[in-house]
Every structure is written in structure tokens, then in C-alpha cells.
Amino acid sequence: MTDLLDYILKALVNTPDSVKINESIQDGIINLNLSVSPEDMGMVIGKNGQTIRSIRKLVTARAMAENDNPKVYVHLQEVPQ
Predict the structure, then answer these.
(1) CB 31 within 8 A of CB 81
(2) Cβ contacts of residue 79 below 8 Å, gap of 6+?
(3) Coil, strand or helix: which one is 45?
(4) Is 30 in a helix, a strand, or coil?
(5) Which letter, b or e, does each residue of 17-51 get, where b requires 16 or more Cβ atoms within 10 Å of its Cβ?
(6) Residue 33 and residue 66: Cα distance in Å, rounded?
(7) 29-36 vs 20-26, strand pairing mode
(8) Domains (ranges, CATH) in the chain?
(9) What string of pLDDT tens digits covers the 81 residues of the chain?
(10) How far apart are CA 61 and CA 3, in angstroms?
(11) Full-model pTM
(12) Secondary structure element (H or E) that encloses residue 54, with its range
């Protein structure tokens, strides 16, 4: 799951070195915490949140293909400076 997310985000942002993805699993729920630079937040969120919404849908579709009952949450954060 993180490989797909990493590929999408690094192709989208201007500073791909600042992209960090942390995956944690609790009670069958997958939490993906994304960190990007503050300059790239607008690119990742998109107009009216369309880009991040689409990214979440792609990750959910991938989880559905890999697992029987997936619950995936994607959280977006700024990289602390």
C-alpha cells in the first residue's frame, strides 16, 4: 500500500525528498500518515480537496483488492521545520 502512495505523491509534489509515509495497523485498520513539505500541501490537497480525496479512493481500492475487509485511513501532515 505504501509503495502505491509513495509513487503517487513523489510524482505529484515539487520536493519528493520530503515525502514520508508511516504505516500502522491496529485492530485490522490501516492508518497511513503522510508528511509533505508545507509548499506541497496545496498540490496534495488540490482544489476543494479533490486530489487528496482521489488519493484516498485509490488506496482504498488497492486495499479492497488485497484484503477481504479493509479499512484504510490516510492522514496528511506537514513536515515540521
Answers:
(1) no
(2) 18, 20, 35, 36, 37, 38
(3) helix
(4) strand
(5) ebbebeeeeeeeebebebbbbeebeeebbeeeeeb
(6) 20
(7) antiparallel
(8) 2-78 (3.30.300.20)
(9) 889 999 999 999 999 998 999 999 888 889 999 999 999 999 999 999 999 999 999 999 998 888 766 789 999 987 666
(10) 14
(11) 0.85
(12) helix 50-66
Strands 20-26 and 71-78: unpaired
CA 40 to chain centre: 13
Provide the 10 A C-beta neighbour count for residue 59. 21
Cell of 3: 509503495
Which grid coordinates are listed for 45?
Answer: 490537497
pLDDT of residue 45: 93
Q: What is the pLDDT of residue 28?
A: 84
Amino acid letter for position 16? P
